[in-house]
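ok so i was messing around last nite and threw this chain in just to see what happens. nothing serious, just curious
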Amino acid sequence: MSTQTHLRIRDYDAGTAMAPHHHEEALLSIVVRGDFQERIGGSERNYARGHVAFCPAGVTHDQSFGVRGARQVTFRPRDEWVDYLADCKAPLNQAPYVGSATFSYLGLVDEVLHP
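result:
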């Protein structure tokens, strides 16, 4: 069982793309700056500041970053968090995502601290 969450902050340059890939472990991500398009699980999604997304382990996806690039906070959720979401009937195998005013605010703070 996972007892530690590993946090990464990643910046992506404007107009770049990430080739199709997958992760060995499930990931949660929060977009705190910029925007990008992702192709995952047979669908296309647009993310901007404040979006939170779950990426299941082993699911192939790719991203194309917008004119401002993007900054994303990514972390491996604890196993018990994933178990809780599954118990709540969250469709984790469908790579759910949602926009959040609270997480959008984090992006505003990030822009003030790191212009």
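not much to say yet. Residues 7-100 form a domain with the Jelly Rolls fold (CATH 2.60.120.10).
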